[in-house]
Design goal:
The complex is a heterotrimer of chains A (345), B (346) and C (432).
Chain A (H helix, E strand, L loop, with lengths): L1 E8 L6 H15 L3 E8 L8 H10 L7 E6 L10 E7 L19 H19 L3 E4 L2 H11 L4 E2 L19 E3 L9 H9 L7 E4 L5 H14 L5 E4 L5 H9 L3 E3 L10 H8 L4 E4 L15 E4 L3 H13 L1 H18 L3 H9 L1
Parallel strand pairs in A: 1-2, 1-3, 3-4, 4-5, 5-6, 7-8, 7-10, 8-9, 10-11, 11-12
Helix pairs in contact in A: 5-6, 5-9, 8-10
Chain B lengths: L1 E8 L7 H14 L3 E8 L4 H12 L9 E4 L12 E5 L21 H20 L2 E4 L2 H11 L4 E2 L18 E5 L8 H10 L5 E5 L7 H11 L6 E4 L5 H10 L2 E3 L9 H9 L4 E4 L15 E4 L3 H13 L1 H17 L4 H10 L1
Helix pairs in contact in B: 1-11, 5-9, 8-10, 9-10
Chain C lengths: L1 E6 L6 H15 L3 E6 L18 E2 L3 H10 L2 E6 L3 H14 L2 E4 L5 H7 L4 H12 L3 H9 L3 H5 L6 H5 L4 E4 L6 H6 L4 E3 L26 E6 L8 H9 L2 H6 E6 L4 H14 L2 E6 L3 H10 L2 E4 L10 H8 L4 E4 L2 H4 L6 E4 L4 H13 L5 H15 L2 H27 L1 H4 L9 H10 L5
Helix pairs in contact in C: 1-18, 3-4, 10-12, 10-16
Classes of the chains: A alpha/beta (345), B alpha/beta (346), C alpha/beta (432).
Chain lengths: 345, 346, 432
């Protein structure tokens, strides 16, 4: 079958969604389909460019494709009779982030016009889709709340599960993933400062920009935790990440209200590592059970410090929770084969 | 530098400009730059063409890239203050194919109005470019003729994953190309039937229509040369292709009035083989000169047969033009180093 | 040029007869005209105007697409009757084309279209008029549909938004089309001719002697719109008019209405002759005999009136209201009456006629020539071709703007909107 996979592109930015799209195409090709990835350039500032960004998507002609799988706004607006959505997230600025500090759309007549247009186009696209999948329960819930559409959850699987396995734990907790304000590594550093001196933390992942990276280093110095904090802020190879995960005592992931599960959590689950997260982290809460497969702390330095200390100082407890995490993941977790089956159903 | 390579695509059809874009990306990354490819579908259906031109125009890469290189139309409509064109071809239905049977749609009043709009838009977009490269002298002269703009020829090299070897000058004339009437493999077969030596002809490439490859084989049988004719009616993998060219006496490439010299010509030169071509092959002649980098003859079976025999009987000549072809490629600066240099210098 | 007409082809359709006229004129001028029949229910050859039997059905998608791809100009004949124009309603949004607007009010056609298209209809009513479907239905069921919805809800926007050009036969109803499209609009008199067997020989009006009564004629489908009551009242209110005018009412009429009018006339002492339906020959003779034709329809929303033109072509002056298409007729051949006081106005005109201050004879002598000179198919054909050329020239930009219409218009319709500005900036490269 000729299948077009549609995603956005913010030029020169490559994150999880890009990886996912690439892997999806790869897996479709392996199944013998003629699959092609189409990436639509997307800008969202100033907010007045949003209507034309939507117009660009709706003007695209994909008659040559028999099936279309679209991942994000506004790529999923491309018209096609046989369209399946795998919603990684909507344009949150027009929905749940509307009134938050992250919103770039003002509450003015023009802003409201744009939000209305987005909602109208979104609803039209959802109505015209064959299937709607979302990458997490959170995204599914938002879709139901804001647009009134039902969807099935389809967790993006790990692209390289074979790299992650349980190894003898060394003396650190591992916090992976992109480093930026929303992922709240700064809070982790503050939490570390409230833990006893034996607790060690490794933060490894690409930083959003130099100032973020420098800021963390400075904070660590100020709080006097540089000795027990390892900052490896760059694009590491998968093997390097796997090594950090596999030998950690537990993994930490505390993003602010993230849509999806997060690869960090999946990697941890694959490697049988327990996870420390927070009550407001979003999608990951579907996987982590307090006391069962990890720790769910309040998003405060004190609460996190308590969880981190507990995990670090009780390796057997961590191990047990890690194994529970793995079992749960085995039973419910996604693989690429299952994923492709469902997308093409 | 952050460089965006922008092109249009036909979904699920690969090769052509897509290869150039992907090879350029590799070359630029090796030179230490960050490269992003913007490739969007474009469909020339007349009632939708204007809308899609609008779509490309709305794409604004200002502040997102330092430099933008645009390939297949209408990629050059995107907005950016530093836009370079590596122009491969026009929307030919609205230019040189307008008065021919290849236009593909009716030339009613609306089509004429669209043509006027397209030419206006093209002219303005070309004026926005800071520099225009083309892939051949043929295309450059068309730009001058139709749009009144000057351009610099920048020959597209093969991707660096292609490495060829020369295993000597054997008995086969090897013609690598899609099998279709326009490429005139049938003429090569007719020529084979007129040869007096025992030269062989090998056609490598998939038929553009089912049954076309077989019709060529049938032609060979009818002309009594089935024993010296070999046809691979399929896409042949790189290794096999390189091996076949490596063993060849000479390559043959005789398309009718082609825009540029074509990859078959480059592939031959890489394997240090000359190219047998004809006077009316168009852009091929930018690379192939008679007696130096190949043989250029009248587009008749007789002339081609004579050339094939000549090479078969004089292996030194074959070697001479083979080396000449390789030299010619260097002389024309057909290399990614040169391409990167030019792109970053303008 | 290759021209495609989307048109009714029914034998009884006046618009189909216009198509025949215009097509002939176009062919004489060297153009090629292909036909697409737009009746909702496909016709049999017997039902089809015999000059239009080479039409293809609008439902034959392949044939229609083929014709439209090859044509330089596409023209849709549009009138307020869905059974005749369903094909154009279907194809206009898909392929565009020019519209020849025979009616400035398309409410009845719109009502017939709504079932099955409720969402689209609701969006349209909201967008152009800010009313709901329910509100519109209420007006439709009120018995005063036209009075309540004209002129604010003409529904011409519904189809004209897709038009590449609009040709109308008078100007009074162009506000609707103009606000719905920037495409060129043109006013050209409706081409008309009387068929061979109904063409009245050009006859001078007989001398109006003291014994000859003045013949006043109303013809057509006789209903309340024709204002026959007002004519009777106007004649009745002046003794001299009563004495010298015979009012002939010709055309299909319900028995009840016939009795009512006869009774009213009798009560008021007006000499009335109600003939009922007539054959073409009988009608031609009645037109010929008439000294003046009263053509006062209320409300009159066609962009041109065939009966008025017929009356003029037969060499007879008209009495008309000063509204709509009639307002644009020359006062040398028609007598206008203030629509706000019809009876009063008619009374004055009849008085003028009976006392001789109005020279019907001179008007009659000018009427036929005026009509022949004005309602010409050859002029119409050449104007149509010019419109078509202009429409074709503008078509590519319309294709662009149509594709991105959401960026041009905001609910407020504010042209200074930043999004529209951005669109104009982005698309400057396309505009001449």
């Amino acid at each position: 079958m000729k299948i077009a996979v549609l995603n956005n592109m913010a030029p020169f930015v490559h994150g999880g969604a890009e990886e996912l799209a690439n892997h999806l195409v790869e897996r479709l090709l392996r199944r013998g389909h003629d699959a092609e990835l189409i990436r639509i350039p997307f800008r969202w500032e100033p907010f007045t460019v949003l209507p034309k960004q939507m117009a660009i998507a709706t003007a695209l002609k994909l008659d040559a494709a028999e099936r279309v799988i679209a991942l994000k706004f506004p790529a999923y607006l491309v018209p096609h009779e046989d369209k399946t959505l795998w919603l990684l997230h909507q344009f949150r600025q027009a929905y749940d982030l509307r009134d938050s500090a992250y919103s770039t759309i003002p509450d003015s007549p023009e802003g409201r016009t744009v939000v209305d247009a987005i909602q109208r186009e979104d609803n039209r696209a959802f109505l015209g889709s064959r299937h709607i999948f979302t990458n997490s329960a959170t995204t599914k819930a938002r879709l139901a709340d804001f647009n009134g559409f039902d969807a099935q959850v389809l967790h993006p699987p790990l692209n390289d599960p074979e790299l992650f396995h349980d190894e003898e734990a060394e003396d650190y907790l591992f916090a992976g993933g992109r480093v930026n304000a929303m992922k709240r590594q700064e809070l982790l550093v503050r939490a570390l400062a409230l833990t006893p001196n034996d607790v060690r933390l490794v933060i490894a992942g690409p930083a959003e920009d130099e100032s973020t990276a420098e800021g963390l280093g400075r904070l660590a110095d100020e709080l006097g935790v540089s000795e027990r904090l390892t900052l490896d802020l760059r694009f590491s190879t998968r093997e390097e990440i796997a090594r950090w995960v596999n030998r950690s005592r537990a993994c930490i992931y505390i993003p602010f209200e993230e849509d999806s599960l997060g690869y960090v959590a999946m990697e941890a689950a694959e490697a049988s590592k327990a996870v420390i997260t927070t009550t407001d982290s979003g999608g990951i809460l579907g996987l982590v059970g307090e006391g069962y497969s990890g720790w769910i702390a309040e998003p405060t330095a004190e609460s996190l410090a308590a969880a981190m200390t507990d995990a670090f100082r009780h390796p057997l407890r961590s191990r047990e929770r890690g194994m529970n995490m793995h079992l749960h993941w085995e039973a419910h977790g996604a693989t690429w084969d299952k994923t492709v089956d469902r997308l093409l159903a | 530098m952050k460089i965006a390579l922008v092109t249009s695509t036909v979904p699920f059809v690969y090769g052509g400009a897509r290869n150039i874009v992907s090879w350029l990306k590799t070359a630029l990354e090796e030179a230490g730059h960050e490269v992003e490819v913007v490739a969007l579908p474009f469909d020339e259906e007349p009632s939708r063409i204007v809308e899609q031109l609008g779509m490309f125009r709305m794409i604004d890469l200002t502040d997102q890239a330092d430099l933008v290189v645009c390939f297949r139309p209408p990629a050059y409509l995107v907005q950016h203050p530093r836009k370079i064109l590596w122009f491969i071809h026009h929307l030919r239905a609205y230019y040189d194919l307008w008065d021919t049977e290849y236009r593909g749609f009716s030339d009613n009043a609306i089509a004429r109005a669209r043509r006027e709009l397209i030419q206006r838009v093209d002219n303005r977009a070309f004026a926005e470019a800071s520099h225009i490269f083309t892939n051949s002298a043929v295309v450059s002269s068309r730009l001058r003729e139709f749009n009144g703009v000057d351009s610099e020829v920048l020959y597209p090299p093969l991707g660096s994953e292609h490495s060829f070897s020369n295993n000597g000058y054997g008995n086969e004339v090897v013609a690598v190309s899609r099998l279709e009437h326009h490429k005139r493999q049938h003429l090569l077969i007719e020529a084979l039937a007129l040869t007096s030596s025992k030269v062989h002809l090998r056609l490598v490439g998939k038929g553009s229509m089912p049954g076309y490859g077989k019709s060529l084989l049938d032609l060979g049988a009818r002309l009594g040369v089935a024993d010296r004719l070999h046809v691979h009616d399929e896409w042949v993998d790189e290794d096999l292709k390189q091996q076949l060219l490596g063993d060849a006496l000479v390559a043959a490439y005789i398309p009718v009035d082609e825009d540029s010299y074509g990859y078959p010509t480059l592939e031959a030169a890489r394997a240090t083989k000359g190219v047998l071509t004809t006077t009316d092959s168009g852009g091929v002649l930018e690379l192939v000169e008679d007696g130096r980098s190949g043989l250029v003859v009248e587009p008749t079976a007789g002339a081609l047969a004579e050339a094939m025999d000549r090479l078969y009987l004089d292996r030194e000549l074959a070697a001479h033009v083979g080396n000449g072809a390789a030299d010619r490629v260097d002389e024309l600066g057909i290399s990614w180093a040169h391409v990167v240099d030019r792109i970053l210098s303008v | 040029m290759k021209i495609a007409f989307f048109t009714p082809t029914h034998r009884s359709s006046a618009i189909a007869r216009v198509t025949v006229l215009v097509r002939t004129a176009l062919q004489v001028a060297g153009h090629d005209v292909a036909l697409v029949a737009t009746e909702e229910v496909p016709l049999t050859p017997e039902q089809t105007n015999e000059s239009l039997r080479d039409s293809v059905s609008w439902r034959d998608e392949a044939a229609v697409r083929q014709i439209s791809l090859e044509s330089d100009i596409v023209l849709h004949q549009i009138g307020n009757y869905y059974p005749y124009h369903a094909g154009s309603v279907h194809w206009l949004p898909l392929i565009g084309g020019c519209i020849a607007l025979h009616d400035f009010f398309l409410g009845d056609m719109f009502l017939a279209y709504i079932p099955g298209h409720e969402q689209e209809a609701a969006d349209l009513l909201e967008r152009w008029y800010g009313i709901t479907l329910e509100q519109y239905y209420t007006a439709a069921a009120s018995g005063m549909f036209l009075e309540q919805t004209w002129p604010r809800q003409p529904l011409t926007e519904w189809l004209c938004q897709y038009a590449d050009g609009v040709i109308a036969h008078s100007a009074f109803g162009l506000a609707g089309p103009k606000r719905s499209t920037p495409a060129p609009t043109l006013v050209v008199p409706l081409p008309y001719s009387l068929d061979g067997d109904t063409a009245a020989p050009f006859d001078l009006v007989e001398e109006t002697g003291p014994t000859r009564r003045t013949e006043v004629l109303t013809f057509g489908h006789i209903n309340r719109n024709k204002l026959c009551d007002d004519v009777i009242m106007a004649i009745a209110s002046h003794r001299k008019s009563r004495q010298s005018i015979t009012y002939r009412i010709c055309g299909a009429i319900e028995a009840e209405e016939r009795h009512r009018l006869a009774a009213v006339a009798s009560d008021l002492g007006v000499d009335v002759d109600i003939t009922g339906a007539l054959s073409s020959e009988e009608l031609a003779r009645a037109l010929d005999r008439a000294d003046v034709i009263v053509c006062t329809r209320k409300p009159a929303l066609e962009s041109a009136s065939a009966s008025a033109i017929e009356g003029l072509l037969s060499g007879t002056p008209l009495i008309v209201l000063d509204t709509g298409f009639y307002a644009e007729l020359s006062p040398e051949v028609v007598l206008h009456v203030d629509h706000r006081d019809v009876v009063g106005g008619l009374k004055k005109r009849f008085a003028g006629i009976t006392d001789g201050s109005i020279d019907l004879k001179t008007m009659a002598s000018k009427a036929a020539a005026y009509a022949r000179d004005t309602f010409r198919a050859d002029v119409y054909a050449s104007e149509l071709v010019e419109l078509g050329r202009e429409a074709a020239r503008r078509k590519p930009l319309r294709e662009l703007d149509a594709a991105f219409v959401g960026l041009l218009t905001t609910p407020e319709g504010d042209p200074q909107h930043a999004i529209a500005d951005l669109y104009r900036h982005d698309t400057e490269i396309f505009r001449p």
